[in-house]
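Hi V.,

You were right to ask for the full record rather than a summary. Here it is.
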Amino acid sequence: MTFARGDVVIALFPNADGSPPKARPVLVVQADTYNAKLKNLIVAAVTSNLTHAADAASLFVEVNTPDGKASGLRQDSVVSCINLATIAETLVAKKIGQLPPRADAEDQQLPEGRSGPAVTARPRRARTSTSTASASRSGAPASEVRRGVEWE
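Predicted structure:
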């Protein structure tokens, strides 16, 4: 079976803690070029827990909208682009719907009482930090040594 980016499917999604995978809705986020070539899929977890609906790496799906109805989801949900996994196509039980590409994702309405945009994941501006220990080892001033990248 071939899947397309935007397909909402029921699949066994692995847990980060190593416990057995759970059957749940997931969104196919892998490019269609690779969906046609590979026997695995990159998917994003879908949850009915709306706590992180306003997070910049989340997409809020309201089931009463046309897009929400097309998704096949039964209740308002959040696609978490922080919780991605690569799974074998054989772990997919069935396709339940599809989410169309949205140019206006930043303008979505959030559940009542929530603020901020519900958008697909996008990079945030990176801010580098320095390490005095690294600077002393390299002989360079601390202001010139990058230890890592922190996201604002």
